[in-house]
Design a protein that fits this description.
about 20% strand; GroEL; alpha+beta; seven-stranded mixed beta sheet; GROEL, domain 1; about 550 residues; disordered C terminus; 18 helices
Length: about 550
């Protein structure tokens, strides 16, 4: 049987145009790609980080320093690059901030792994060491986490200012006002469940409109709907509004089956039209009867129905998005009704003021002064579409970071740590001590992991214009001293600074997610020793001599 296999070797025949990279070559390629991606976006890290201009195939321009946005818009093709894009997206989705940090650390973990592989350390040993290091790093992070209360506004503002430090959305005064308004929004929508604070970020609606400046951005303790009042004769402002929320068309329904009505005289036409009008009037009468003076509906409103609603002094807004309807229900306390016959006074929501206002050249409806809204809005203004989009990304990051800070998930990471690379350096120092306890080659991997964490401080120093090597050496010496864990890179002065005194703090949960996501991504990449790219569209040749590959 062995002789038969030797004389008749088995082959995997790949499609024409396919390629295959094996063993060390595959590892080297993947590591090089990961390091290259990290190098692309590391210049955006920190308050003095630079922006990237991205131009799509259609000519759309995006100017941003948000890591997740940059990677997503670059349309990277290589599978390893796509893995790094995914961890940036995960970071953005989970905690809102740290998208650049996670890719920079992942790239440096790959670089350190590449150096060990060249020295003869097997990838499996590196993976084992990295897993040990990640677990230990998370334990150290938990010990470094400082608790914070939702009422501690000063520290919340400091975290928010650090998040917005690298964003080009106005001066510090404007940023501080935006941070305070986002804090107010979070306090409004948060809920306590089993004595734990839960914040649903989706309940803070970001509505944007080109025009004005970023200074015109404001928090609305209610909901802004990007629609106008349905009829010009309807009132544009109603105080003490009783609001009906309908998932129902104020129109004559068409039959599901095709039907035909035969009319033999003009009187029948008149009766038919009068009947339609009467049905629409009954809908308006029903709304008036239950006491509604404002109506929002997901569906359409017939012109005749609009006439009667206007006659009764009822404001109506039609074709409202489902997500906006749900937000209105949470803000006003109303119930979304699917049939108008079921509508009652108890289903109505309340708002102190509903008003149509001109924002730029377009009308928008503001629902404000609600009793205890569980959905609120932030209306973002900026002078151009690019500035508007960047402001939206900045506020999304800010909401995510502050939510991660105050949310209590019972895992010990609710609170803040010191920024400027201080926390990563302290974790790195603890890992170097921990490495001495580990036998075998895994010890080298733990040390390599520690070196990768130092890249955050080094990159911040480099982006601030300082000598990153000498600054990093000084910082490492500081961290060996008593109470040295608070020292990091003072980016504003391109020097070492006490992060506690400067007020540079960040959510512990952001760092936690960075460690987890970067570690998992690198482990996936280091386990790859064979890459087959079957891009060919033609059928493979039946001749084993063409592109033969051992099975």
């Amino acid at each position: 049987m062995a002789e038969e296999n030797r004389l008749n070797p088995q082959y995997v025949v790949l499609p024409e145009g396919a390629s295959r990279v094996l063993g060390r070559d595959a590892l080297r390629t993947n590591i090089a790609i990961g390091v290259a991606v990290a190098n692309i976006i590391k210049t955006t890290l920190g308050p003095k980080g630079m922006d990237k201009m991205l131009i799509s195939d259609l000519g759309d321009i995006i100017i941003t320093n948000d890591g997740a946005t940059i990677l997503n818009e670059m349309n990277l093709e290589h599978p390893v690059a796509k893995i790094l894009v995914e961890i940036a997206k995960t970071q953005d989705k989970e905690v809102g901030d740290g998208t650049t940090s996670v890719v920079v650390i992942a790239g440096n973990l790959l670089k350190e792994a590449g150096d060990l592989i060249e020295k003869g350390v097997h990838p499996i040993n590196i993976i084992a060491g990295y897993k040990l290091a990640t677990a230990r790093a998370l334990e150290v992070l938990k010990d470094l986490t400082n608790k914070i209360s939702i009422e501690d506004t000063d520290k919340l503002v400091k975290v928010g200012m650090v998040t917005l430090a690298s964003k080009n959305i106005g001066d510090d005064k404007v940023k501080e006002r935006l941070v305070k308004e986002v804090i107010s929004a979070i306090k409004q929508v948060m809920e306590k469940v089993d004595n734990k604070i839960i914040v649903d970020k989706d309940r803070i609606k970001l509505e944007k409109k080109v025009g004005g400046s970023i200074e015109d951005t404001k928090y609305i303790n209610g909901i802004v709907i990007d629609k106008e009042v349905a009829h010009p004769n309807m009132p544009k402002r109603i105080e003490n509004a009783k609001i009906a929320l309908l998932d129902y068309a104020l129109e004559i329904k068409k039959t599901e089956a095709e039907e035909r009505i035969e009319i033999t005289s003009p009187d029948q036409i008149k009766k038919f039209l009068e009947q339609e009008q009467e049905m629409l009037k009954e809908m308006a009468d029903k709304l008036k009867e239950v006491g509604a003076n404002v109506v929002f509906t997901q569906k359409g409103i017939d012109d005749v129905a609009q006439h009667f609603l206007a006659k009764y002094g009822i404001m109506a807004v039609r074709r409202v998005k489902k997500s906006d309807m749900e937000a209105l229900a949470r803000a006003t306390g109303g119930k979304i009704v699917t049939t108008i016959d079921d509508l009652s006074k108890n289903d109505l929501g309340f708002a102190g003021l509903v008003e149509e206002r001109k924002i730029g050249n377009e009308a928008m409806v503001f629902v404000e002064k609600c009793k205890d809204p569980k959905s609120v809005s932030i209306l973002i203004r900026a002078s151009s579409q690019q500035a508007l989009d960047e402001a939206e990304r900045a506020l999304t990051d800010l909401i995510g970071a502050l939510t991660a800070l105050v949310e209590d998930r019972g895992d010990g990471y609710s609170g803040y740590v010191y920024g400027g690379g201080a926390t990563y350096l302290e974790i790195a120092r603890k890992l170097e001590e921990y490495a001495k306890e580990i036998p075998g080659k895994e010890q080298l991997a733990v040390k390599a992991y520690a070196n990768a964490l130092k890249s955050i401080a080094a990159t911040l120093a480099e982006n601030s214009g300082a000598d990153s090597v000498s600054l990093l050496v000084e910082l490492e010496n500081k961290h060996t001293q008593k109470n040295g864990a608070v020292y990091g890179v003072d980016v504003a002065n391109s020097s070492i600074g006490n992060m506690s005194e400067i007020g540079v703090i960040e959510p512990a949960r952001v760092v936690r997610q960075v460690l987890i996501s970067a570690g998992e991504a690198v482990v996936i990449i280091l386990r790859i020793d064979d890459m087959i790219s079957a891009k060919g569209t033609k059928s493979s040749s039946s001749n084993p001599s063409e592109n033969p590959e051992p099975e």
